[in-house]
Amino acid sequence: MRRFFIKREDITEDQGLIKGDEARHMIQVLRLKTGTHVILLDGMGTQYDAVIQGIQDRCVCVTLTGSRAEPLSSLPTITVCQAFLKEKKMDDLVRHLTELGMAAFHPFVSTRVVARPTGEKLLKREARWEKIAGEAVKQCGRTTAPTICPTTEFTTLLEALPSGDHTLKLFFWEEAQVSFHEIAQCTPTDITDITLMIGPEGGFTAEEAKMATNAGFLVAGLGKRILKAETAPLAAISIVQFIFGDM
Question: Which one, 79, 106, 129, 177, has least CB within 10 Å?
Answer without folding.
Answer: 177
